[in-house]
């Protein structure tokens, strides 16, 4: 199972964190941008190349201390097809370095449209009989609020190609409660969605006890995080909200099981832009990212049980 691959990498690195590679040109050091824009001008092509070079520098410093990266598709789409080329090449490079790749697309549709999303990010595209991986993702974030019709096409692809998904359950944003905290009879909407994740994943439970259907549960709601960990024993968590959004180690600790597993915690800007927050030069941006990633690992592992199978 794909989630077993992620868990194995977490145990190998003793690190339950994922780096969100969500770049904007504002994050890219000037010395990188100046050379590229001098050559290609103020173009989307230049922007895409700058993002890719930035990402490669980060991956080179991080691949042996973190188990995974999580590129958010929107940050690449905003630069058009050149941005999507940067996304594809970033994923390709990360895979060459042995990293697990969670594509953060939050896709949501039904039928053949969801088939297409699943094929693009997790499966193989048929080009005149040749089967080609378009984006090479190991996992995709999805919105489950269309119900089973929107998830079934993904499950088929996950089973066929050994991939996984993370379904939005209790998100980290301040207004999430406007819908997710509403009651359906005596259950909150996020509880119902979490229970659906358990159901959707019941036929794909791996050797470490977690299925290929994970849940996105934010660090900014630690009580709900604790509640859902108890209620969803086979659902692995992707935990946003650490760092820039206000969540800390004592918030995310509730996501983990007795073996220090059960969750992976995301940090994006905190790692990508670490060079802006200390005594670093722009050319040390990747070194600063590595130091912040190590700090984050120590912060989280200090409050959870030892990571082991």
From TrEMBL:
Keywords: Decarboxylase, Lyase, Pyrimidine biosynthesis
Positions of the catalytic residues: 106 (proton donor)
Pfam families per record: OMPdecase (PF00215)
Keyword check for Lyase: yes
Top-level division of the source organism's lineage: Bacteria
Gene Ontology biological process terms in this record: 'de novo' pyrimidine nucleobase biosynthetic process; 'de novo' UMP biosynthetic process
Any one GO molecular function term: orotidine-5'-phosphate decarboxylase activity
PROSITE patterns hit by this protein: OMPDECASE
Catalyzed reactions per annotation: orotidine 5'-phosphate + H(+) = UMP + CO2
Keyword Lyase: yes
Enzyme class: lyase
InterPro entries: Aldolase_TIM, OMPdecase_AS, OMPdecase_type-2, OMPdeCOase_dom, RibuloseP-bd_barrel
EC code(s) of this entry: 4.1.1.23
Domain Orotidine 5'-phosphate decarboxylase: 16-284
Pathway: Pyrimidine metabolism; UMP biosynthesis via de novo pathway; UMP from orotate: step 2/2
CDD domains: OMP_decarboxylase_like
Database matches in NCBIfam families: pyrF_sub2 (TIGR02127)
Family: Belongs to the OMP decarboxylase family. Type 2 subfamily.
Protein name: Orotidine 5'-phosphate decarboxylase
């Amino acid at each position: 199972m794909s989630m077993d691959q992620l868990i194995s990498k977490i145990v190998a690195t003793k690190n339950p964190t994922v780096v969100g590679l969500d770049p904007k040109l504002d994050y890219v050091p000037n010395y990188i941008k100046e050379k590229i824009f001098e050559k290609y001008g103020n173009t989307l092509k230049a922007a895409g190349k700058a993002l890719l070079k930035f990402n490669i520098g980060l991956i080179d410093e991080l691949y042996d201390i973190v188990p995974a990266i999580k590129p958010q598709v929107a940050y690449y789409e905003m630069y058009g097809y050149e941005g999507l080329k940067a996304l594809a090449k970033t994923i390709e490079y990360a895979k060459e370095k042995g990293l697990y790749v969670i594509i953060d697309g939050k896709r949501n549709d039904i039928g053949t449209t969801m088939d297409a999303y699943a094929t693009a990010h997790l499966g193989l595209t048929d080009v005149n009989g040749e089967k080609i991986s378009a984006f090479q993702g190991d996992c995709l974030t999805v919105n489950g609020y269309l119900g089973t019709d929107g998830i079934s096409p993904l499950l088929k692809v996950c089973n066929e190609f050994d991939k996984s998904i993370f379904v939005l359950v209790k998100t980290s944003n301040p207004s999430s409660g406007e819908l997710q905290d509403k009651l359906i009879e005596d259950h909150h909407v996020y509880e119902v969605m979490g229970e659906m994740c358990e159901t959707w994943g019941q036929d794909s439970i791996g050797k470490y006890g977690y299925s290929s259907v994970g849940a996105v549960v934010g660090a900014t709601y630690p009580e709900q995080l604790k509640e859902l960990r108890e209620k969803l024993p086979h659902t692995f968590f992707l935990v946003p909200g650490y760092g820039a959004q206000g969540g800390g180690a004592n918030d995310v600790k509730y996501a983990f099981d007795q073996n220090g597993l059960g969750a992976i915690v995301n940090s994006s800007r905190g790692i990508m832009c670490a060079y802006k927050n200390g005594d670093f030069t722009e050319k040390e941006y990747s070194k600063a990212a590595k130091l912040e990633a190590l700090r984050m690992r120590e912060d989280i592992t200090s409050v959870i049980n030892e990571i082991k199978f």
